[in-house]
Specification:
GMP Synthetase, Chain A, domain 3; 34% helix; Rossmann fold; HAD_sf; Haloacid Dehalogenase Superfamily Class (Subfamily) IIA; 5-stranded parallel β-sheet; HAD-SF_hydro_IIA
């Protein structure tokens, strides 16, 4: 059975999954477009709080993925919803982030401010290229005064055209270092955005899709959904092997082309395949065999089948190749 036959909706991450910076990832536009034509709904769930939904939808449309603002759910929206539990209408909220974040705060009935001297009830911290020492210092002062600290997301890096750049979580770490206060996180890996997107689509069986284990996949797992991990962004093969049980995807693929390829869903699950075999000896997984033409991804799924056989901590696990095919496959993981 193909993915489009098993699931009725795709809850898609953006950065590292659909695009990198301003460039669509190869096969992404065609795959999502064809999946939608096959009757599978799509929503875009992003931890990036620097753009409003309308701007994200316009960017997607410009890449060839016709989208409406209602198709997009950002961590900034989730953060504002969380803020309503800690502030009353008309209260000041200090916004560290893009102007669109402040607009969401205003639309929710709060007063966005930029200074701790306004005695904000909440500090909302989201990504913006303009965030710097001055903005972070105002946040630290407000948090020290007792404001509730909420981050749109805790992604330490942000995939861009030139590579992995500083993400919101790294900026949050500076405020935490200065205050000792760890914020509540509104975005992934919390399940709220996944649950809301599922409800908005009226989906009975959605598939969470992403490139980052500690946010996209962990969020899908937390929301008790199947998850597809694509190897086009942050988390690679070695991260998958070391993944704790809370970050283990259901399916693993190279990229989104798997949505429309003539491939059985079962072939995407961790299992012995491609003629590879694997066995565990303590913290070592011995990978052997391998048919002619077998792929590094088949070798990875074989190793994962053994690594994920239980909920053991795999942080120290190493994969040792015991055949030429296994050696070639594991070298491709790096």
């Amino acid at each position: 059975m193909k993915i489009t036959q098993l699931y009725d909706a795709l809850l898609l991450d953006l950065d590292g999954t659909v695009w990198t910076g301003d460039t669509a990832i190869p096969n992404a536009v065609k795959a999502v477009t064809q999946a939608k034509k096959a009757g599978v709904a799509a929503a875009y769930i992003t931890n990036n709080a620097s753009r409003p939904p309308a701007e994200v939808a316009a960017k997607l449309t410009g890449m060839g993925l016709a989208s409406e603002p209602a198709d997009v759910l950002t961590s900034a929206q989730a953060a504002v919803q969380l803020a309503t539990k800690h502030a009353s209408e008309g209260d000041p909220i200090l916004v560290v982030g893009a102007p669109s974040f402040a607009d969401l705060v205003r639309e929710a009935g709060f007063v966005p401010v930029t200074s701790a001297d306004e005695h904000p009830a909440v500090v909302l911290h989201g990504h913006s290229p303009d965030n710097g020492w001055r903005q972070l210092s105002e946040a630290a002062l407000a948090v020290a005064q007792g404001a509730t600290y909420i981050a749109s997301n805790l992604d330490t890096t942000l995939p861009m055209d030139r590579g992995l750049m500083v993400g919101n979580g790294s900026m949050v770490a500076a405020v935490t270092s200065a205050t000792g206060v760890v914020p509540q996180a509104a975005g992934k890996p919390e399940p709220a955005m996944f649950d809301l997107a599922k409800e908005n689509l009226g989906s009975a069986r959605p598939l969470a899709v992403g490139d980052r284990l500690d946010t996209d996949i962990a969020g899908g797992v937390a929301a008790q959904m199947d998850a597809l991990h694509v190897l086009t962004g942050v988390s690679g093969p070695l991260a998958l092997i070391a993944a704790p049980s809370t970050q283990r995807p259901t399916l693993i693929a190279e990229d989104l082309s798997v949505l429309i390829d003539d491939v059985d869903v079962d072939d995407l699950r961790p299992a012995p395949q491609g003629g590879f075999t694997a066995r565990r000896d303590g913290d070592e997984i011995v990978l052997d065999g391998g048919d002619t033409g077998a792929t590094p991804l088949q070798a990875l799924r074989t190793a994962l089948f053994v690594a994920w056989a239980d909920e053991k901590d795999n942080a120290s696990v190493v994969v040792t190749p015991a055949s030429d095919a296994a050696r070639a496959a594991t070298q491709a993981w790096w």
